[in-house]
Amino acid sequence: MATSRRRKPQADETPQYSTEQLLKYYREMLLIRRFEEKAGQMYGMGLIGGFCHLYIGQEAVVVGMQNALIPGDSIITSYRDHGHMLATDMDPKGVMAELTGRSGGYSKGKGGSMHMFSREKKFFGGHGIVAAQVPIGTGLAFGHKYTQDGNINVCYLGDGAINQGQVYESFNMAALWKLPVVYVIENNKYAMGTSQHRASAGELCERGSAYGIPGHVVDGMSVLAVKEASEKAVAHAREGSGPVILEMKTYRYRGHSMSDPAKYRTKEEVTKMRTEMDPIDNLKKLILENGSADEDALKTIDRDIKNIVAEAADFATQSPEPDPAELWTDILIEA
Amino acid sequence: MPIEILMPALSPTMTEGKLAKWVKQEGDDVKSGDILAEIETDKATMEVEAVDEGKLGKILIAEGTEGVAVNTPIALLVGEDEDADKLETPEVQDNTTQSAALQKVKGEEETKPTLPVEPPKGTKAAPPASDEDKYFDKTVKLTVREALRDAMAEEMRRDDKVFVMGEEVAEYQGAYKVTQGLLQEFGERRVIDTPITEHGFAGLGVGAAFHGLKPVVEFMTFNFAMQAIDHIINSAAKTLYMSGGQMGCPIVFRGPNGAASRVAAQHSQEYSSWYAHVPGLKVVAPYSASDAKGLLKSAIRDPNPVVFLEHEILYGHSFDVPEDPEFIVPIGRAKIMRAGKDVTITAFSFMVGQALAAAERLAEQGIEAEVINLRTIRPLDTETIVNSVKKTNRLVSVEEGWPFAGIGAEMSALMMEQAFDYLDAPVYRVHGADVPMPYAANLEKLALPQPEDIEKAVKAVLYRS
Ligand SMILES: Cc1ncc(C[n+]2csc(CCOP(=O)(O)OP(=O)(O)O)c2C)c(N)n1
Ligand SMILES: [Mg+2]
Asked: What's the Enzyme Commission number for this chain (chain B) (predicted)?
């Protein structure tokens, strides 16, 4: 069985990251962080409605993973999807405008926070039914194999989603047919108010073991650890060896959705994660310590990101609501 | 310029709350993500986090204040080079553009935009044109089973993106032998035996369709598709809409539907009204072999998800089928199986045969029934039905399934809306008994509409006994 525990990389095999790479990861994580904070604020102002699930704290997972992919690889996830969209280079304006339900949104305002897509960027949603994205992602991988396009699917799911039956139906078919898919369990310790230990027997990374799917635990709070594990998993899937499971240990700082008072965990727990494990702060420290860049360079990035997010928010408040006629469009494609 | 921090709404329903506690005090430095204050809502105590950086210049609402309306400025955040002491308390009316935006959104609730009451292409749309009749010069006798197989084979030859998957479809040649020979011709890449995993392979099929393939997903019977109905509805039918038109899902879900024979309640359900309820799906239920072939070809070519409901008992029935592979039947077009002036009978799938048998008996008694084979349940060919009723002034709706919210209920509504002035009698619904399907032969027969039931219904709407 190829399930392995976290392992300290040996000094000689630690990959070297260029300044350019480190700053890119910093920038991408920061964009998600600032975007989500803005989304939270706009929710507070009533500009965003319904459910709104923020990704704050989990940024390293998607940024590390996406940086291991090549053009054409497809991505699919749950309703906690804003970070994934930004990491696949979707336009923050279009994402924010979908959150506000405006015509400039990726789904013309008809999908909302949980349902956004970009065929162009190979982002296949945005799914509101817990774990529904898992067989769909497996089907995308089936498509990659059927057309031999050389691409893979990365299918993100939560520690709660992992207990759905359809996940195992998917694991079975993916392993049986050696489909090119990487299942990324974003284990943020909670499914709404239920901690992993109250819902899940055994270790999540081993959930594929009966199907012979290798599983690895990854420090999901370190973008470099994620990147490294992702490179290997992606290579495995791409070379035709079948699916891989990566269990990313991560944490969400905010409530499950905006209206969650988060009574199921202590303030101390959240504070400890935020102050000691924050993926952005820790990368920043590393960048400054190893001299890749100075405070000023990082400040410039911060300012840049601030402007991008401000522009996205402006666009999302100014973009008009969808035309009433949109009510009746996009139900069926004209045959 | 100082930045106003506004009282946030922390749930979709919150309009005001108590400012319970200031965690940061005037003069404190604030970073994005820092907790500024605690707020009590109707449901819980929640934290307010800073979005912008700066110094907490002035607290405008003291802690302990109750009933603070959402979007009221509660504090001012100043930049590094601003002087907190010089800050003026803003008038509450002097709202920021952002809260003005909110008021605009709120205000719009009162002045609702005028919506078109009906979709631009309403239910009255004419059925699509069809040249299907011209192909009947040269025909062969085929069973429905063979016709379905030929449809798949022809479409698979035409388009490499078409593939078939399901339980026992390949090696075993189909649980009901509908996929006979496909594995031999197209190989295991395109004819795929799945594990018994309906939820999983339905979702996988949807993913493959999103990728651009054209899956034909066979359910051994539609009874088992209940395991997969979430993907048929939530994933296949709704995603086009939820994506603003980006995510077409060209997939066919097919298999036998309804009662076979003596397999009892869990294996004998008729699902047409379940699927026909859903915008974003097309629902087809053919009767004859030619319809089965022509419609399955249309379904495979259709860019939308199509639920294709077959009938096990019909699989072995033979009909004339055009030889020309160009023969195709458009989705959305009913077929008049028998013309008549006295009463209209609508039916679909196996019930078309029952209706025709009833019409035969009625003809012997001098009653001319017009039998309409719906063929497609959604989009329904309302024009053909309504035009027929305008002539006959009477409608008997026949279906194998349960009555409540069934196809007959839809027919009744259609008559109310589009043919009320033409009716000489109330619509009569013939349907399966409103019970789980019994096993005993005599009870099963009682539960399913028989030609005599249809005959009785026709006489009732004609006020004859
Ligand atoms: C099938 C289904 N059941 C329940 C829900 C309600 N629900 C939404 S999110 C959620 C928790 C999922 O937690 P997890 O998979 O850990 O993802 P996270 O929210 O932590 O990202 C639940 C129960 C749902 N959307 N779908
Ligand atoms: Mg979780």
From this structure: 1.2.4.1
At B187-196, the pLDDT tens digits run: 999 999 999 9
CATH number attached to the domain at B3-91: 2.40.50.100
Residue A322, in any domain of the structure: no
Q: Decide: A126 in ligand 1 pocket, CB within 6 A.
A: no
Coil, helix or strand for A51? coil
Distances B427 to B31, B83, B395, B406, B446 between C-alpha atoms, Å:
70, 80, 5, 14, 22
If you take atom 7 of ligand 1, which residue's CA is the nearest one?
A: A130
In CATH terms, the fold of domain B134-322 is Rossmann fold (3.40.50)
Domain ranges of chain B: 3-91, 134-322, 335-461
> Which has the closest alpha carbon to B106: B75, B68, B74, B70?
B70
Q: Which CATH architecture has domain B335-461?
A: 3-Layer(aba) Sandwich (3.40)
Q: How many domains is chain A built from?
A: 1
To the nearest 10°, report the CA torsion of B380, B382, B383, B384.
Answer: 80
Residue A226 sits in a domain of what CATH number? Answer: 3.40.50.970
SS3 content of chain B, % helix, strand, coil (to 5): 35, 20, 45
Residues on chain B touching A141 (C-beta within 8 angstroms): 207
Domain encompassing residue A69? 3-314
Contacts of B203 (CB under 8 A, 6+ apart): A132, A134, A135, A136, A138, A139, A166, A169, A170, B228, B231, B235
A-chain residues near B282 (CB < 8 A): 332
Residue in B26, B168, B199, B267 annotated catalytic: B267
Alpha-helix runs per DSSP H in B169-305: 182-186, 198-211, 229-230, 239-242, 272-276, 289-301
d(CA A257, CA B11): 9
* Beta carbons of B245 and A108 less than 8 Å apart: yes
Count of all residues that appear for chain B in the document: 465
pTM of the model: 0.92
Tell me if domain B134-322 and domain B335-461 are identical in fold.
yes
Q: DSSP assignment of A189-226, as one string?
A: SEETTEEHHHH--S-GGGTTGGGT--EEEEETT-HHHH
Question: What pLDDT, in 10s, does the model give residues B292-319?
Answer: 999 999 999 999 999 999 999 999 999 9
For A139-191, how does the pLDDT look when each residue is reduced to its tens digit (9 = 90+)? 999 999 999 999 999 999 999 999 999 999 999 999 999 999 999 999 999 99
**Cβ A96 vs Cβ A319: under 8 Å:** no
DSSP line for B68-92 = EETT-EEEEEE-TTS-GGGPPPPPS
Q: What CA–CA distance (Å, rounded) separates B317 from B313?
A: 8
